[in-house]
Here is the input.
Amino acid sequence: MSAVLQGGLHPQSWRLTASVCLGLAALVLVPALWTPVHVLLVAGAILVGTAVVFSVRRSLVALVLMTTALPAHLIDSTALPLGMRPEEILLAAAFVFAFMDLVHVRGLNFCRVRPDGLVYAFLFVASISMLVGFYHGNEPSVVLRNGRYAFYYAAFLLTVQAVDSRTAVRVFVPLFVVAGLAVSAEYILQFVAGTGSSVSGEFVRLGRRQGVFLPVSLLLLANVLLHDPKRWGRVLPFGLFLVMGVAFALTLGRGMWVSFALGLIASVWLREAGLPAWRRRMWRPVAIAVSLLVVLVGAILFFQRLTGAAISAHAVERSRTFVDYTRDVQVLGRILNYANALEAIAEHPILGNGQGTTLTSYSFDPDTGRFGTWTSWTVDSLYLTLWLKLGLAGLVVFPALCLGVLRRSRAAFMRATDPSTRAFTAAGVAIVLAMLVLGLSDGSMLNGRFALVFAILFGLLSRVAAEVLDGPAAPTTQPEGPT
Here is the structure.
């Protein structure tokens, strides 16, 4: 140390001050040589890195926010070594932190929960599917790009080790709500900027990928209102529910509407099922669900009146496809894509076609008004995707994992006495059920970066259920103070 001080690196040395200033200036000026977005990305990376270093819990918090709230174009604009994405680098760092904590702090005291065997099995099947993809001659870059999303479910194991029940309920439930509010703000702001309140009757459908997260946040809020109203009161959750509901309507996602409605029905049913038999009333769950939906529709109509856009007309028109699917050429194009997927599955029904499989289908382009062919690496169906890429093993193991989380969450809800824990586990049942239904027409649980969010959510639900049903598990990370 004395040699360093004598060499001119004393804290009061002008050389040290100048070096630090030059370094900070370079962090701003060098990214600015490309675009202002790069300045934001570098600055955000530095802030996130300093916030999460050596903390698995804070890394998971950052992962949820980065995956849900950060606009997709910012993530897509990053060019990292080996084609990695920001959330993947952060996930890898979190695993390093967890390994250090497991070895040096917890003495290899590993926490086990009931569904983790299915997670290991799914990761093994995903590994085999990548080998199958290489065997069938699929493009290596596409195999690696597609296969990465299945391995996001390793975050389940990370979450179970790092987060206890109290942290899951007190930290991650508000986090999911805040993330949903951020997504809602992006939807509403983009809608207002795209239509304008003076353009009466016009409507621009928003196709943001983050929309799949809105049912998750809405069902969390609904269950807080139903099972833990004293936590935040009734006014704040109800107001947030209406704001997110308006953004949810702007998605015009028919599958998400149906799945959310079923999740809401499951939530109010659990509320009655958790009451003593003499207090149960069959009419009350129906009344609660209908009341929430009526108020939500009223908020949407008020927003429509305020902006002048014909949201309800477009919603009704798209809903008519439930009765007559031939009214929508996009639905017909999706059905043709399903048929192509089944033909490909028929060629290799046992092991599947492996990761990197692509499908060429007909699709209608609303901008040109013409049909054309397009090649995609996925299918808008969770179950067809599993069968196509991971074979029968994937088609069995992944739904079994989801049902295992659902079953444990319901059992924890019936036994728990803490209102916040009951609200979270009930929301878990509703969310998993809703996503399984949505999986008929959407593959977000496996295709894309939102697989990481569902992996973390499944890990949180499994850890909470383990502590409620099996007693305190192995200690998590070393106490870090408030997250």
Summary: Confidence is low (pLDDT under 50) at residues 1-8, 196-201.
